[in-house]
Each structure stands twice: as structure tokens, then as C-alpha cells.
Records
---
Amino acid sequence: MIANFMDSLRVMGLGMLGIFSVAVVLILIMIILTKLFPAEHNDSN
Amino acid sequence: MQQILDLYSNLGNTTWQMIVMWIIGGILIYLGIARKMEPSLLVPMGFGAILVNLPLSGAVTQVIDNVTETGPLNVLFDAGIANEVFLLLLFIGIGAMIDFTPLLSCPQMMLFGAAAQFGIFFTLSLATLFGFNLQDAASVGIIGAADGPTSIFVADYFQSRYVGAIVVAAYSYMALVPIIQPPVIRMVTTKKERCIHMKYNPRNVSKTAKIMFPICITIVAGLIAPRSVALVGFLMFGNLIRECGVLDSLSNTAQTSLANLITLMLGLTVASQMRADDFLNLQTLFILMLGLVAFIFDTIGGVLFAKILNLFLKEKLNPMIGACGISAFPMSARVITQMGLKEDPTNVLIMQATGVNVSGQIASVIAGGLILGLVPRL
């Protein structure tokens, strides 16, 4: 049980780190997409 | 007379455990119909729970006199859930229903979606202390994704014996978001914080950006978390057919007929895992309790993350929007908007809350993918 718990703490650390790093990459993609393809007047918002 | 008695002989095979499962099935049907809690899933599941717990039920596989009689629900389970096909098809429908515009116009909201997945990992750790092995603990923790299909996908991937209890917990708590979240948010915020007004200055989003978004996300998810690419890819494919503008008919079918058909199958088929022998045990009670813990710590994670950001920001965020980072869409956004209006009738948070809530849908799928990638390595 303790070994599983220690492993689970590793999953927690790596998982939260992983999800924040992916979130940052996704934010960058969204910013790049909106800059590369800006909305024109007749585009839907 | 003997023939008449033989007709009713199956009554003798009834056990008290089966009767308890009929009651549980009845409760699920009641919650679905009378309380309107996720009726599209709880009603089929409740009925299925009764169906599979009839003595010598022909709906599920039985071994009678050393002869195996395959039941249709097990056939459906093997054909659609064990290989995750039903869930992936459902993700096309879900993707077609989601409008990512509020997120694309405020991309930084994605961080809240990430923070609100904390409950998944916290519960995963907690579950190991309750004696679950790492695979089962991961399957229990993913209830915190607040996303039924992802929960089933992960539990199924790890071949968890508790898939029935996990699905019941996931869908029940999703329906209970309006009851679970407000007291938790009040517990970790002050009235002053709940009254914070937030400016909404969205970027305009072009149609091209909306079309490119699902394609880019799929490529990135595939490169970073390849195990999640099936989940993310099908979700994003659904979104692509919604946004491309030339597949409206397919998009409508995915949103309505496809999603309804799969949901119908899913509820009944998952019930095949709710046989009394597998369901009535202490672990089921633990799973129901841990599922609630997952939802509570998702909410706390999102709110506390917003409070931490506020330490560094000039223009303060209303920390309540952090709670929308769970995937229960649009329920969570609606709850936070109503809470904001209740605290201050001039405080409208709907757009920010919706942006965060949409980000939670992506984040929960990615969290599922990360778990699929991380757990087998340990």
C-alpha cells in the first residue's frame, strides 16, 4: 500500500506538471492561431 | 401442477443481493426521471441494473449446467466498450457540440482547466490508501474528470473491475455539481472575493482559426501524450466537422443521432458490470465517497489557483471562475454565473466562466491521457 501511495504521489506530481505544460503549449497555439488568422469584419465571432 | 410450479422455480434462485440491486436500479431510475439527474444515462443504467440482476438473466453471460450462454449485454460490452469504440464515437458527438470560441478569445483561461484537474490526482493518491492498486486508483481518480466517457475510457483501459461503480459515481456527481460546488466555493473564498468584477476583453476569432484549432490540438496531443490521441482526436474531429461549415449535416447527426444512439447503448451496456457479485462490496462505497472527494478537490484546486494568481495580478480575478475548470459543461459555468449574480446582481461572469468550462473539457481529456501514459510506467 505504501509503495502504491509513493508511486501515486509521483503520478500526481508528474500529472499536474504535465497538464500545466500542455496547457501552456495550447495557450501558445491559440495565441498564434488568432494572430496568424485574425478575424475580419465579416468573420463570425 | 408440477409444471406450474416449475414455471416459477427460478424464484428460488433470487438472492437478497439481487433484490438490493433492484432497489439501486430503482433509485437510479427515480433520480433520472423525478430529479432529472443525467436521465439519458441513469435511466438506462438503472433499468440495466435490474435486468442483469434477475436470477439466471439471459441478458448477461451465464454458465448453466457447465454450458456458457452468451448474453447480449456482454456481446455489446465486448464490441463497444471493451475496445473503447462506443466512447470514441461519443466523443465525436461531444466535439461537435462544443464551441471553443470563448476559450480561443481568452486562451489564458486554459490554465484554470489544468488547475481544476487536481482532484483527479489527489483522489488517485487517496485511493491507494484505501487499498486500491495503482490501476484501480487511477480509474477511481478519473471520476474527478467530471467527464463520463473519459472515466469509462480510463477504467476500461486499466480493465478495472469497478467500472460499474465508477460510472455511477461519475454521472451522479456530474448531475450534482449545482449542489456540490457552491458550498465548497464559499468555504475557500470570502464574500469580497466572490464579488470581484472581471473585465471581458475577448479577441475576435476568425473562422480559419476555429478550423485550425482542432487540427493543431490533435497534432500537439499526439506528440505530447500519444495515448490520449484517440480521445483528443475524436473530440477534435467532431469539433472540426462543426466548425468547417461544409459538413453541417454530419455535425447535426453527430450532435443528435450519433450521441443519442451511443448514450442509449452505453447506459444499458455499462449496467452489465453492475451484477450484485461485483457491485455490492465495500469498494463500491469507497468509490462513491472518493468520487465526491475528487469533485470537491477539483473545485478547490481551481479556486485556489485563481487566488494564487491574484497575488501577482493587478486586475484581480474572481476566484470562483477557477471552479469551472471541471469538465461538467455547461452546468459548472451556469452555477458560477448564478453564484456571481447572487453575490452582486451587477456581476456577470458568464463569458469568463464559459471559457474556463470549455478549457476543462480539453484538460480533462488530456489528464486522462496523461494517466494512461504515466501509470503503466510505474
---
Amino acid sequence: MSDSDSTTLDQLDRKIILATQSGLPLVASPYQAIAEAVDSSEKEVMRRMQRMLESGVIRRIGAVPNHYSLGYRGNGMTVWDIPDEKVESCGEMIGSLSFVSHAYERPRHQPEWNYNLFAMVHGKDRDEVAHKVALIADLLGEDNRGHEILYSSRILKKTGLRLASDK
Amino acid sequence: MTEALDAIDRAILNRYQGDFPICSRPYQEAAQTLGISEEELIKRLQRMLENRQLSRFGPMYHAERLGGGLSLCAMRIPEAQFDKVADQVNAFPEVAHNYARDHRFNMWFVLATETPERIDSVLQEIEQQTGFPVYNMPKKKEFFIGLKFEV
């Protein structure tokens, strides 16, 4: 399945998503608690969440660490200009590094924007990020035709996930 | 002041950034794997959430597979107009988050729309209102979404 495909979700799936997108209830029987909130049974909620996990609608279930408050204060968006025919192998290599949390291929907008590979690099501070970026540049060798680190200076807006409404 | 994570907290995070069970008593099952009690696991998760060491505990949804549109967009805004344009952009409910970054491309926001088709029209509306071009950078391919963050 490609990233742009969407799996058919019915109204109960959507209710379950809305009820759980901010987290799983911290009670002994969380799926039962969700079932009560969406007017269904525990068994049905578990079956649907299992199905969404298998189809990739749910990426995973578990803890989402907050990099920043765990001491990773130097998070940089790194962007790379990689030959098109190499972007897949380079992306997989970068994505497998322990200090990279997201790696994506994105379109260039030449001539203003030549970068086609994005990777979020995490470090304790900006020096550590710069050091890790130099490490990536070494690994890429001549496949790297240029790169930059874009640090965020301010959060201008932050809201949660918006879910397509029913119908 | 946020208290530091102890060895058990770290074991929880390193073991359960995914694979949390779907069963009637999932905390009990996970706690057994970790060698602690169900109550203790719930208590520790609660504390790490309150301390913001965790942003969330639960399912992480794949936004594109929920049927909506999603894209990363960038703009180049002259410093003098930056705040005004930020307000204009942020006023769109489809703008989920927006970051100022130290670069010529100094505004980066994520658009999340109810349908994939809406992305282009929202982009056009933003361009019309602000008078600046929007560079649309939807992901073409995803290589990895972190699951291995060691604490």
C-alpha cells in the first residue's frame, strides 16, 4: 500500500480514532473504556484496532516520547540534495540511524529549493546535531550535493490531528 | 522541575514505543514483561505524561491513511511582514502546526485537510491572502518514522 492510499474506515472506526487520538485510557481495561465511550463492545473495539494496526492506519501503539523534555534540545530539520536515482537508498540509510526520527523524500522547487531528502536529527544541543549531520555527510559521500540544517526558532501554531468528518 | 527517569521508566520507554498489546488487560500483560505490577505501570505512565516526558501514550495514527490530505509547506517572508503573514496563515484551520525556522525559507507549516483535493485550494487561498508563494512539499516517500528512540 502506498502512503497516499486510505483504507476504508466506517463510522465506528472514526469514533474509535477520535476517542483514542489523544491517548489510550490509563485504566486496567482501556479497550472496555473506549467501547463504553463509542457505544460498542470491548471485543469489537479490539478487533477494529487490531485491523487498523494491520492495515497501517495505526502505525503503532505505545509511548510517544517528548524529545525536548527528555533532554534532546537541539532538534534540526536537515535537508539534502541527493541525485534522484539515489534518493531511495540514501533515504533508507539515513532513516535507519538511531538519531534520526523521520526521513522523507519531498519534491524540489528548482531553482529556489534543490533539496529532496528531509531528515529530523536529534541531539542534546546544536553542537551535537551539527556533529551528527557531519557524520551523515560522511556516510553519503559524493551522493550529497549539498545540505543545510534548519532549526526552529519559534512555534507559531500547534494543534492536534484533524480528522475527516463523517460523510 | 521535572524529575529524571529512573531505570524502570527507561525500560518502559525502550520496550513500549510500539507493540503495546491489544487484549483485555494490556497494562497487566505489559507489566508482566517488565517485571512490575499493573498499577505501577499505569502510575508511571501517568507521571511521565504529567511531566511531559511523554507527549502521548496510545495509538499513533497514520494521518494520510485516515482519508485526509497532508502536506508540508514552506514560505519566504520578509522579516518586516513576518508576524502579519504568520497571523494570516495561522488563521486557516487547515494549518495544523507552523514553525519559524532560521533560513531564507523561514516559515514551515503542515496543512491537514479533510480531503486530499482540498490541499491545492487552501494553498491558493493562502497565496492570495498573503501575496507570497507557497512551496508545497508533500512527502513522496517515507523511509522511517522513529521507533527506536533510546532513553
